[in-house]
Fold:
Amino acid sequence: MKRAVTLVAVIGMASTVLMAAGKETVSGQYVEARTAEIFTGGCIMGSEAETMGKQAVLAWKVDRGTVNGVSVDGLSVVAALAGDKNLGLHEIGGDKAVVKSAIYVDERANPAQRIALVALAHDLTKSIGTVVSVTPAPIQFADAGREIHVATSNVSLDVNKEMTHDPSCGAELWFHPLASVDQAEMAVADQNSFSGSMLGTKWSDPNKRSAFYGTFSK
Structure:
């Protein structure tokens, strides 16, 4: 517990340093899924906008790069987000959600790399909110071609890239990725779950057109 508190305490400092780092670069793969459809008709969106979409899982796998002068090649970081309202409501004219997040950093990372991974997630995410926990854990992030699988403590995410872009019933894209990306594609979350206790909410929201995947660079 003391280690987790210590990591949380340095997030602000690490993020500030990252913002000022200048020419450093880092790049890799990104995937997310939230608990609301991102591509659907207005009738479904109208029913979900106020009551759903309050939670999301975000995951990054670094191919190569440095953060604050620290190499994070091959390491991963996962964030579970929970808001008081739909995380994308501000994109369609509503108020911005107040968000809490639980972050999982690659257990293979040394202490400096763990801080760098938290700073990276904080800098790339538009709505990470208040970080309530940082947990070193084994992280699986595997791109199998048609599907991306992410798993760590309390988190499971399976994203199917084969999504039908059927515009029937007036379906359209309502939201954009919750993190900065170079390019992103819509996808189906075959599995999207969080079972931890630190956010005050748990979820399992499978089989929805609620995901994005792509690449990031900074």
Notes: Residues 2-217 form one domain. DSSP finds four helices and 14 strands in the chain.
